[in-house]
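pinging the channel bc i need a second pair of eyes. not urgent but kinda urgent?? the chain im working w is below, pasted from the shared doc
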Amino acid sequence: MKDVVTIGIPEQLLEKFVTADAIPSEFALPAEVHQKEYLSNGEMKTWDGKTQLVYSPVCIKTPNGLERKLIGSYPVCTEAEATEALNAAVAAYNHGRGIWPTMSVADRIACVEKFTRKMLEQKDIVVKLIMWEIGKSYTDSVKEFDRTVEYIYATIDALKDIDRDSSRFDIEQGIAAQIRRSPLGVVLCMGPFNYPLNETFTTLIPAIIMGNTILFKPPKHGTLLHYPLLKAFQESFPKGVVNTIYGRGHSIVPALMQSGKIDVLTLIGSSRVADELKKMHPKSNRLRAILGLDAKNAAIITPKADLALSVQETVLGSLSFNGQRCTALKIIFIHHSIADRFIEQLNEAISKLKFGMPWEKGVSITPLPEPNKPAYLAECIADAKAHGAKVMNEFGGETVESLVFPAVVYPVNEKMKLYREEQFGPVIPVVPYYSLEEPVQYLIDSTHGQQVSIFSNDREEVASLIDPLVNQVSRVNINCQCQRGPDVFPFTGRKDSAEGTLSVVDALRSFSIRSLVAAKLTEANKELLNGIVNSDSSNFLSTKFIF
């Protein structure tokens, strides 16, 4: 197969960028969003210091050429404001004696339901900010908002189930005990830019509803979209329960960790950053970490696979939201005997993808939010070429500003960056193999261990791969792309890919601990326990049943 060479920048890419007056009015922001306040200790505090301008990955045609569209700004607070917010969260928790951690489960649920109703009122602006801040298609931005709301309601239902199961006494060996889940303390929550609402809230909401207090730092890309929700947080929860911190992570987060006042670190991002933050905490045995980190999910396609299905799932798995998902397929192992046919069909499928601006109907490839990402992807492709690979599809890797056309790179080998590094973008590395032992060994040697996809219709072949691979990754997908959902399924990873487990139920467990009240069944203790339960004088020791 030959290296497909294109000369110059394809006009098709350039034509996708439009002038400001050509943006459809129904998708335009009503105005630039310049955030001048933040939520701390129950107050919307005014900020008049340094701010960070936010430019959309969507570029606009101007007389000076293509320019990223300015959509707003947000505060760049300092260590002082971050520490103030931390102290507010610590005071609200008050060693587990605060209003929120001692509140009944039913009352906490009512607060989260109130927040969700207020959140729904902000749907239009939040969806548009997702689209404009990170370049996600309008359709997928709507899906992200809706899925987040569904997740919140599913979390509420799951907590009701847990609480109902706990609304009784267990009696063993003459001891009566009520076992419930109690909060952990102050949670530092930092979400990712690729799913800035959904993946942030899949940790934030369970942490809150279990009675913890929160320090919330929005992601660098995807900050403004949380601004319309700050009033909802303020009006739905007691003061100090939810506090936002803004600023450069390297400037404000170290002091928070070094204080020893953070009880739980939840981060969806880089394993390198997670390692550094955990080492800063002075009480390592006290700190709990719930982390979603790097992934280099592989697809293994055998000669006994349905090739058309494999191509379809590879396109979805590698290029949904430009491949900028932790669960994306980031390396494809294809048996050498079917590599030519696979790549030919893969190239054809990619050529049919619609690329353009986020508001376009049916668009698949959109501008990338990270300003440096196109250059990094070009570097990866150049490195692969230097070690013997070729770009196999027309226009593969061609770039206009923030818009990068997907590249199929083949044959990839162990000398290349694309073999080792998580590219997190629309580049598909394809590795030919001769024995199934080769991709299995790759997964064994990898520092990542989130998921893998196996494509084969042979029962014995699939079974022979399942047994070793479930001990290397946390999820083995059969004849389908890697993915997070459904949200009731466990979501985690081995090695450097995750710590802790998330799902609707698992997240509630992750942000809480089992606690119990126990007493010997003497007559005096029976009378005492019955008196407490009948008088509703304790929110923990209670047989109330939440419907």
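so The two ends are 63 Å apart (CA to CA). and The chain has 18 helices and 25 strands. — does that match what u expected or am i reading it wrong
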